[in-house]
Amino acid sequence: MYRKILIALENSRADDSLVPHVTQLAKQLHSQLLLVHVADGWVARNYEQLKLTESEEMKEDRLYLEETAAKLRAQGLTVSMHLALGDPPTEILKTAERETCDLIAMTTHGHRLLGDIIFGSTIEQVRHKTTIPILVVRAAKEIRQ
Fold first, then answer.
1. What average pLDDT does range 89-107 have in this prediction?
2. pTM to 2 decimals?
3. Stretch (H or E) spanning 70
């Protein structure tokens, strides 16, 4: 049913809530996993246009993706990864479509209207602009720094 699942990682404790759900699903369905993190700092958003050097944020994010992929591969899963740069909803959607993903897995932090206005809601933007099914997992309240 789901041959390729995109996991939108935040590089935060929220991922600890999401990854086990998707891992179990992937094992049962023999799905491939595509780990995606979107670096959205100033350097990441202007990297191509200004021909900038990779920032520490980008290096840390790439390392995080590599470490997470290695852990999942050790469990016997087929895993690829992509570090995207720019606007998270836009990059998640572009990657899911380009890679022909069957499912997008993301976390929610449970913000209400005011929180979504202040913090924005990547999930809201993704769900309104895609026809790909989305698995949403509630993140644990404690976020690592």
1. 96
2. 0.86
3. helix 56-74
